[in-house]
Amino acid sequence: MAMRAVAGSTATAAASRGLTRLFSTFSFIPPPQPQQAPAPPPAEPSTNLFVSGLSKQTTTEGLRKAFEAFGEVVHAKVVTDRVSGYSKGFGFVRYATMEQAAAGIQGMDGKFLDGWVIFAEYARPRPPLPNNENPPYGGTSPFGGNHSYGQR
Question: Which of 89, 84, 49, 42 lies closest to 70, judged by CA?
């Protein structure tokens, strides 16, 4: 009986040490905080605007009509999903002059369109395409692989 009590007390002590170690914050090292990428520089003023926050129901014609109140819209385009045809939530508007583009940003940034708050800013130029020296799936064929059907 005494043996059982000693064994029981050592088991209890070991369990409490394990729990203490499990819940102790002494050895806890928090994970490193991810480095936040610096904010991209503001886009240079241009006649082309990037509009984000669009509803799925927003059409190119609806986008054009909303921005025509601030100047002559040369081109408007809502980027859509190829399969569903719904808006991807962003689009582009091109004005005739820089002053009209600035008025378009001033007038529509943070306003509602089709029930959603939209954001208008100057569009950034598209980054250059990556150099395709090493295609992701190897080879030189446009369909991947190095196909040679001639000599074997």
Answer: 49
Global pTM exceeds 0.70: no
Q: Is the separation of the CB atoms in 90 and 107 below 8 Å?
A: no
Pull the structure tokens for residue 79.
């980027």
CA dist 94 to 15, 22, 78, 98, 122, Å?
70, 60, 12, 10, 10
Q: Radius of gyration of the chain from Cα atoms?
A: 30
pLDDT digits (tens, 9 = 90+) for 16-73: 565 666 666 566 677 888 888 787 778 899 999 999 999 999 999 999 999 999 999 9
Assess contact for 66 and 51: CB atoms under 8 A: no
DSSP percent split of the chain into helix, strand, coil, nearest 5: 30, 20, 50
